[in-house]
Amino acid sequence: MLSCNERLVYSEYDTFGETKWAYKNPKYFHISALDTTYTYNGSLHFTILTDYPYRNIWFRYNMSDKKEPEQIQMTLATKQGKWLGKGGGRLRHYSLPLFQNKKLTHQDTFTFWVQQYMRVDTLQGIKSVGLEISKDREVF
Questions:
Q1: Which has the closest alpha carbon to 61: 86, 36, 29, 104?
Q2: In this predicted model, what pLDDT tens digit does every residue of 80-102 receive, in sequence order?
Q3: Integer distance in angstroms from the first to the last C-alpha of the chain?
Q4: Whole-angstrom Cα distance, residue 103 to residue 137?
Q5: CATH classification code of 7-138
Q6: Smallest Cα–Cα separation from 128: which of 97, 95, 83?
Q7: Each residue of 1-47: pLDDT tens digit?
Q8: How far is CA 116 from CA 11, 20, 32, 112, 132, in A?
Q9: Residues 6+ apart with CB under 8 A from 104
């Protein structure tokens, strides 16, 4: 059995210097040569500042093996304004599962992209976004 750290095969984060994320600036992650004898789990990680003006966030994302992008939403705070993420002070960290037990059909490099998909062109209060992929189980 592999330990948690040994299961992690890809981890990359991109920090927004001005804590702003424009709709027209998706983030790209290039993943190379994952072992096709395993299935994989993937999650989106992001950090916001507590002055982020909304209770939720919408994303659009795609992997190079899909034809159409998918949309996903995450609730960040309760209706009463209590932040749901981990952390303290002005920073909150969130993890959003994107896929589980995914079988890859090729070993080549593929691209994953994600963009904020809110109704504003530029979101304020976004500190970073990242992608993590880990081995799930061996395919027989």
A1: 29
A2: 999 999 999 999 999 999 989 98
A3: 16
A4: 10
A5: 2.60.120
A6: 95
A7: 344 567 899 999 999 988 899 999 999 999 987 888 899 999 999 99
A8: 19, 11, 24, 14, 18
A9: 34, 36, 40, 65, 110
